Amino acid sequence: MFQRSFLFNLLIMLLISVGLLLAFFSSLNWLTNHGHQITVPKLMGKKVDKAIETLEDLGFRIEIDSTYKSDKSPLEVLFQEPESGMSVKYGRTIFLTVNRKTPPSIAMPNLVNMSFRNAMLTLHSYYLEIGDTNYRPDVAAGAILEQWVNGKPILPGTMVPFGTHIDLVVGEGLSGEIEVPNLIGLSWSETKTLLDSLALTANPIWEGAITDSNSAIIYMQQPESVNELDFKNSLPMGDMVDIRIMQNPSQELLDQNQPGSQRLTGDGEDTNQVSNDSPELKKVKEDSVKKPKILKGMNVHNPIVDPKAAKNNKSTTDKNKTTNSVSTTKNPKPAKPAVKTGSSDKKPEPVKKTPTKTNDDISNDYN
After folding, report:
1. How far apart are CA 166 and CA 156, in angstroms?
2. Can you tell me the distance from the alpha carbon of 261 to that of 227, in angstroms, rounded to the nearest whole number?
3. End-to-end distance of the chain based on CA atoms, in angstroms?
4. Which residues contact 52 (CB under 8 A, 6 or more apart)?
5. Are strands 165-171 and 37-39 parallel, antiparallel or unpaired?
6. Which residue segments constitute the domains of the chain, with CATH numbers given?
């Protein structure tokens, strides 16, 4: 009796287990949506809100990430996984990458002195874009000279948004000759404008306290506009001019640094005023004022008024008049010389005429 009951219970348990297994396998299609495929729609290029609405209507789950591209609209779908057109199970998760509404910022790299190729690679790695490229004569051909954003220079380390367009100034080598301008006495703002118009580069050296850099004055430059013989100095386009700048240099300092012969006379100074220069320069100025040199052979119409010179001139003129009057008087016929016995005949000596001085000879007496 007990054995029959045990076998009966075992049979019932087997039947139940088989029923459960059959129910499980028959429900797998329903649990896994087996055979229920759906095509993934195209979402790239759409706004994220429209993409989410489309996926929810089709029964997909959604996960969203973000990045930034400057050439795409904010909140635009940049990437999707799986791609559009693929058949997937109903309810699968779709991954979307969306363009950020506000771009993140990054520290501006230093591109100066890099080659153009390296600068482009650096901009790409910093998620920055290359803007306008301008070329300027410079000895560093092919190197980056300056970096600009929105028309203004930008320093390395300045925070800029991703995708910012960076304008570059690139050296194109030296070409042509340009006359060096005289910058002494000009303000720093005037000097920058002038050198930029001549395609020259300034190398400023600031001295003393500077309260306003734009109004500070250039008091020295190298090379100068002219050499010691007053011949114009020239530089290749793009070359550098060294300048020294002070806020308010004295007029004496500006005059001492004038180019060429202007150092001797100053710019607009009274030549009778001797400045506090070297003794040799004082002597040159005094000689040029007190004893002007008269070149030989000059026609002197207004001789220098000097008492001694006037007296000598008067006596020379009177002597000249007397000599001219004597030389121009008619001489009487000379008497025949007496003939002495035993002596040879001698011809009479001719009368010597005093040479007449001309105006040129008179003027030469003052040389």
Report:
1. 12
2. 9
3. 168
4. 62
5. unpaired
6. 29-99 (3.30.10.20), 105-171 (3.30.10.20), 177-278 (3.30.10.20), 293-320+354-367 (no CATH)
Exposure of 88 by Cβ count < 10 A (0-12 exposed, 13-18 middle, 19+ buried)?
middle
| CA dist., res. 231 & res. 39, Å (int) | 84
CA angle 137, 113, 223 (to 5 degrees): 45
d(CA 103, CA 74): 9
Per-residue pLDDT of the chain (367 residues), as tens digits, is 556 676 777 777 787 877 777 776 666 666 555 556 788 899 998 999 999 999 888 888 999 998 888 788 899 999 998 888 888 888 889 999 999 888 889 999 999 999 999 999 999 999 899 999 998 877 788 899 999 999 999 999 999 998 899 999 998 877 778 889 999 999 999 999 999 888 888 999 999 999 999 999 999 999 998 887 788 888 888 888 999 999 999 998 998 888 887 766 554 443 333 334 444 434 434 544 444 443 333 333 333 444 444 444 445 445 444 444 444 444 444 444 444 444 444 445 554 444 544 545 544 444 4
Q: Taking Cα atoms as reference points, which of 37, 166, 69 lies closest to residue 112?
A: 166
DSSP string, 179-235: EPP--TT-BHHHHHHHHHHTT-EEEEEE-S--S-TTT-EEEEEES-SB-TTSPBPEE
188: number of Cβ within 10 Å:
22
Contact predicate 359/313, CB 8 Å: no
Distance CA 79, CA 97 (A): 5
Angle made by CA atoms 7, 11, 12, in degrees to the nearest 5: 120
Q: How far apart are CA 123 and CA 341, in angstroms?
A: 129
Contacts of 278 (CB under 8 A, 6+ apart): none
Q: Which tokens sit at 327?
A: 């030389």
Amino acid at 319: K
